[in-house]
Amino acid sequence: MTPEQVAASYDQIAVRWVDVSTYGFAQVERAVAFVKHKGVALDVGCGTGRLMVLLGNHGFRTDGIDVSPAMIAQARQRHPDARLFLADICGWELPEAYDLIVAWDSVWHVPLSGQAAALTKLCRGLAAGGVLVFTTGGTDEPDERQNSYMGPPMYHATLGIPNTLKILVEAGCVCRHLEYDQHPESHVYVIAQKPDGGVSTGDRVRLRPVVAGDLPRMFALQLDPDSNRMAVTIPRTREAFDSLWAKSLIDPNAPARAILFDGAFAGHVSCFSVEGQDHVGYWIDPAFWGKGIASRALHLLLREVTKRPLTATAATSNGASLRVLQRCGFVVEQVRQSPATDRYPACEIAVLVLR
Q1: CATH number reported for the structural domain that contains residue 179 in this entry
Q2: CA 48 to CA 71: how far, in whole Å?
Q3: pLDDT in tens, 232-242
Q4: Do 184 and 253 reside in the same domain of the chain?
Q5: Whole-number pLDDT of residue 197
Q6: DSSP at 236
Q7: Are residues 189 and 208 located together in one domain of the fold?
Q8: Helix, strand, coil % over all residues of the chain, rounded to 5
Q9: Which of 164, 182, 317, 347 has its Cβ near the most Cβ atoms within 10 Å?
């Protein structure tokens, strides 16, 4: 079965999961005990948000992702302030590094051919010292099965225990616990941890308000030919730049933040209004490209700016910016031709929205 077919099956039984079942809670509690920094968690296959209260009680701010529209709709009703993503974990990019990732009875629905990549993605999505807890089939060899145990057709796959442990090691994680918790059923849960071996990019990025003293540096950055080529933009004149930022610095509804990487000025990120719509944008010093700084900075801004929807635009040729925006939950809602202006050459742009 495809992820879309699995989603359709769960849509049919979503109401069954709107309960207070504590299934799996004890195992997740055991995983939480290994977490040193209880900051941000991700619930993969969050369903109706059943685990979010448990994680919140431990101090986690929890994001959720699920492939089922009906499940996500139930989760939004129960947790209206949570950041929830309707997406397939196979194609979704994690917006940040997480201190805890829970994938309880979820990733085993991923097609067998995508199991290794999905598990690797989750391991690499952990912050230093972060913990992953997930369930799998306790077989010795890879296996996949289809049944209708709950009514609609359902699919399960497993890499087998030896391959699962091998992938954890290759992805830089250590197995802390493995248990056949429903023996003699071959249901296994695994707790893995990324060693706390250093400081991640996320820990090195900070935001502060843009001040007048930043403007000379920001003006010089927006003149950079490589940056303009990638963003498909035309540098502003000094007059236009000064006029724009004179207004921005005194506008309480347009937060503008300097991006600091290890204390050094690395660019800026901001929220601003365009024809009555709230937009976000950023500009990174080319000396800091390729470090994940843009994704982390935008994520930090989105924590601060809680209003939704937010819109962003990017040239369709600017794959880097499209990936940054999509990692932070923005979804492409329109692609159109944009005419030439003083700021932009004529080009094809994608309009992305975070709701």
Answers
A1: 3.40.50.150
A2: 5
A3: 999 999 999 99
A4: no
A5: 57
A6: P
A7: no
A8: 35, 30, 35
A9: 164
- Give the pLDDT confidence of 268-297 residue by residue, as tens digits: 999 999 999 999 999 999 988 888 899 999
Q: Which residues contact 300 (CB under 8 A, 6 or more apart)?
A: 205, 206, 207, 257
**Mean pLDDT in residue range 42-67:** 92
Q: How far apart are CA 317 and CA 40, in angstroms?
A: 32
Pair (266, 344) in one structural domain: yes
User: Looking at residue 348, what DSSP letter applies?
Assistant: E
CA distance 350 to 186: 46
Q: Which residues pair with 310 in a beta bridge?
A: 354
Residue that is written with structure tokens 């600017």 in the block: 318
- Cβ contact 281:269 at 8 Å: yes
Residue 262 pLDDT: 86
Euclidean distance between CA atoms 14 and 66, whole angstroms: 12
Interhelix angle for 319-327 vs 293-304, to 10°?
40
Q: What is the pLDDT of residue 268?
A: 98
Strand partners, 175: 192
CA–CA separation, 76 and 121 (whole Å) = 25
Q: Could you give the maximum distance between any two Cα atoms of the chain, in Å?
A: 74
Nearest alpha-carbon partner for 241 in 276, 283, 178, 188:
283
Three-state DSSP class for residue 19: coil
Residue 188, token pair as written in the block: 């296994």
Judge contact between 343 and 313, C-beta under 8 A.
no
Indicate the helix (H) or strand (E) that contains 245. Answer: helix 238-248
